[in-house]
């Protein structure tokens, strides 16, 4: 049985970002997973597809995030069967918020950024373990590296950014966090773009070009 001190030793760190571009959402995350001072993994995937047009980034306890991922995917499949249509980004995000709120006394220790594209265009939401939800109009960052990431985003973000400019900014912000946050890093940076054509994951070589 875990004691309070043990839980503190197992706390995790990360840097994830969601950003609204003109016609897309860009999600980004580094790949390090930590367990106290131990680097548990250098290749952790922190951006997960939950539907054909919606993805989420995860920060927090890995087991909780993976369980929630399975839970929400099943709920969205049921939504499609019952409603005979795919869920909007807002509907999926609020469904997830309801799941988190229902577990608020025994919570999933996660902070989520949900991004997607539907008939209303791109959408971006941030969610907390207690079920609180905010529709973000520009960008959001989560995890232990978010103070550094927010500094870069605040300085360089502008409304209606093109997709290429948005990808470059997200990579810059995550790279700044990696340089100063010991819990962020790993083998690289993952970038996912969601637009009217679906979800697109950038190859590592394309991400490296954005760093130059």
Nutshell version of this structure?
The chain has six helices and twelve strands. It has 212 residues and is α+β, with helices and mostly antiparallel strands.
Question: What would you say this structure looks like, in words?
Answer:
This protein is of the alpha+beta class and 212 residues long. It is 37% helix and 30% strand. The protein has a single domain (17-34, 48-211), classed as 4-Layer Sandwich (Glutamine Phosphoribosylpyrophosphate, subunit 1, domain 1), CATH 3.60.20. The protein is built from 6 helices and 12 strands. The strands form 3 sheets. It has a 5-stranded antiparallel sheet, with helices on one face. It has a 5-stranded antiparallel sheet with strand order 5-6-7-8-9, covered by helices on one side. Residues 1-11 have low confidence and may be disordered.
The average pLDDT value, as a whole number, equals 92
For the record, what CATH class applies? Answer: Alpha Beta
Instruction: Report the count of strand segments.
Output: 12
CATH superfamily: Aminohydrolase, N-terminal nucleophile (Ntn) domain
Task: State the strand order across the main sheet.
Answer: 10-1-2-11-12
Question: In angstroms, what is the radius of gyration?
Answer: 16 Å
Q: Give the count of helical stretches.
A: 6
Cα distance spanning the termini = 48 Å
**Beta-strand level of the residues, as a percent range?**
25-35%
**CATH architect. name:** 4-Layer Sandwich
Write the CATH fold name: Glutamine Phosphoribosylpyrophosphate, subunit 1, domain 1
Indicate the low-confidence ranges by residue numbers.
1-11
Number of domains: 1
Strand and helix order: HEEEEEEHHEEEEHHEEH
Oligomer: single chain
Main sheet properties: 5 strands, antiparallel
Proportion of residues in helical segments: 25-40%
- What is the approximate shape? globular
Query: Structural class of the secondary elements?
Result: alpha+beta
């Amino acid at each position: 049985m875990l004691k309070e001190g043990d839980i503190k030793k197992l706390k995790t760190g990360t840097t994830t970002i969601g950003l609204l571009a003109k016609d897309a959402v860009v999600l980004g995350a580094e790949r390090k997973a930590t367990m106290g001072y131990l680097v548990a993994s250098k290749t952790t995937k922190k951006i997960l597809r939950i539907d054909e047009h919606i993805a989420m980034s995860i920060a927090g306890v890995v087991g909780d995030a993976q369980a929630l991922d399975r839970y929400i995917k099943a709920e969205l499949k049921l939504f499609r069967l019952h409603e005979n249509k795919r869920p909007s980004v807002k509907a999926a995000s609020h469904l997830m918020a309801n799941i988190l709120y229902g577990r608020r006394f025994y919570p999933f220790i996660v902070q989520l950024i949900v991004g997607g594209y539907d008939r209303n265009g791109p959408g971006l939401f941030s969610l907390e373990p207690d079920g609180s939800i905010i529709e973000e109009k520009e960008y959001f960052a989560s995890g232990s590296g978010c103070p550094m990431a927010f500094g870069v985003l605040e300085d360089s973000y502008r409304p209606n950014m093109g997709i290429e400019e948005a990808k470059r900014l997200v990579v810059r912000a995550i790279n700044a966090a990696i340089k100063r946050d010991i819990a962020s890093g790993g083998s690289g940076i993952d970038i996912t773009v969601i637009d009217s054509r679906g979800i697109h994951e950038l190859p590592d070589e394309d991400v490296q070009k954005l760093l130059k």
